[in-house]
Design brief:
It is a single chain. This protein is an alpha/beta fold and 200 residues long. Helix content is 38%, strand content 18%. It contains 6 helices and 6 strands. The protein has a 6-stranded parallel beta sheet, with helices on both faces. α4 (93-103) links the parallel β3 and β4 (110-114). This is Dienelactone hydrolase. It comes from Streptomyces achromogenes.
Length: 200
């Protein structure tokens, strides 16, 4: 796939979406890690600055905003940069948003999913879109049956999917500020994810 003017192989333009907890410090830390590897990273705030201490509070606020409004905010955040070819990425809820945007963007360079997936729109089709998913094993929000069905659907849609599971980790195991945190799994995830980005 062609790289836009001013870009070289290995340097990606990443749109990183936060989880249902909101734009917590871990999102900024992840963006800094990606920038240190040479990537350009943007972290849209879909919650207007609101952050939450529990998943229940975050999900309630998410439902208050509504799925359509969240997607609209995400699309508006990504639109000014999509012509350059974005890598869409996100945490949990943000991963589901990233997936939806990437599958609808024929210029997408890749999709990095951390702790989450989403339903696929009917008849969605991509051209060998590179996709990498990192998820706990087990994960109450991403069950084995769901992930098996998701993997098959993504393959049928034309995506080139890699899935990495982390036994014993909590759902949002990359966030040091949450009880889910698992340092070993988080560091392994970032090593693999940075390698993935270098191949795009």
């Amino acid at each position: 796939m062609a790289v836009g003017a001013g870009w070289h192989h290995g340097r990606m333009n990443i749109m990183l979406f936060h989880s249902t907890y909101g734009p917590r410090p871990a999102v900024r830390a992840a963006a800094d890690r990606l920038r240190a590897a040479g990537h350009e990273v943007r972290t849209p705030d879909l919650f207007g600055g609101r952050t939450f201490d529990t998943v229940e509070e975050g999900m309630a606020y998410n439902e208050e905003i509504g799925k359509d409004e969240l997607l609209k905010r995400a699309v508006l955040a990504a639109a000014p940069y999509s012509e350059r070819g974005l890598v869409y990425a996100g945490f949990s809820l943000g991963a589901s948003i990233a997936q939806t945007l990437a599958l609808g963007d024929d210029k997408a360079r890749g999709l990095l999913l951390l702790h989450g997936t989403s339903d696929l729109a009917p008849n969605v089709s991509v051209d060998d879109l590179p996709v990498q998913l990192h998820v706990a094993e087990p994960d109450p929000f991403e069950t084995d049956d769901w992930l098996s069905a998701w993997y098959l659907q993504m393959g049928r849609a034309g995506a080139d999917v890699e899935v990495y599971r982390y036994a014993g980790a909590g759902h949002l195991y990359t966030d040091p500020g949450l009880p889910d945190y698992d340092e070993e799994a988080a560091e392994a995830t970032w090593r693999v994810a940075l390698g993935f980005l270098e191949t795009l």
